[in-house]
Amino acid sequence: MSVKLNASQLEHLKKLSNDSNVISALAIDQRGSIKKMIAEAGNKPANETEIVDFKKAVSAELTKYASAILLDPEYGLPATKVRDPQSGLLLSYEKTGYDATEPGRFPDLIDNQSALRIKNEGGDAVKFLLYYDPDEPDSINDRKYAFVERVGAEAKENGLPLFLELVTYDGKNENASAADFAKVKPHKVIAATKEFSKPQYNVSVLKLEVPVNQKFVEGFTDEGVKPVYSKAEAAKYYKEESEATDLPFIFLSAGVSNELFLKELQFAKDAESTFNGVLCGRATWKPGIKPFAAEGEAAGRKWLETEGRANIERLNKVLATTATPWTDKVEEENTVNA
Questions:
Q1: d(Cα 63, Cα 83) in Å, to the nearest integer?
Q2: What's the Rg (C-alpha) of the chain?
Q3: How confident is the model at residue 43 (pLDDT cuts 50, 70, 90)?
């Protein structure tokens, strides 16, 4: 079954992809976490200029090797101006984090942002992050459904694809890295994938977690850690996630190392997941923060030029043999299959 996008959305989606119609995009729309990482690496409070300058360095040095970059309008707009001319652009619509004043991890939109403004800034897509627990009460989740419906309609009206990033959680367990959450994560990720593939949300591309915590998969655990899933069980969850949607979907790196992320992609391919690329963040550039903050911009750029580039080139090499073209899943609206 093919998903229908309008001609403008398709044109922008092509700008975000490589020649094989695979999305190999770089994500650096983090705000609070980058500020914290720069402060820790530099052993002093981080200022706004450092955050902007690091995003500019990443954009200038690494978009030469990525099909697109995801940035935020709060600190990232200067970085959009120095990206490679062939690199597409996604811009975030949401504030960093979530509303902590009430239960439910509700999203907040950036006050002076809109899909039209994203388009006018040269953006090729609206990116919206939603924290979602399918097992939360309807009183919480119905508000989230309406929220995504509004964002999706707005993106489509402005001719932009909507990339919906889903991050699952357990409303009864705050420790997302624990074995207890690993046990329920596949259910939550797969349920989220099914829900937001429904047409009323007007999602163009899902940005998804892998359906397991790979560090609890047999053969991937640290010494002394008891596996939660066998390899066969984990592979079954990867395939179920893939079969839960007709939409193009890409994987987020979720803060894991470059090495582990590449292994996850190969595992997904072996499990017959038909994923269509990645939006890879910290797995690409995170170690570059230390030289940037501790030794200065020149040292940070040198790391990006060498190790950061190597991370992306390894990623691109793996994607070439594991990811499938999103064009296999999409057609233009008002066309009829032959």
A1: 6
A2: 19
A3: very high
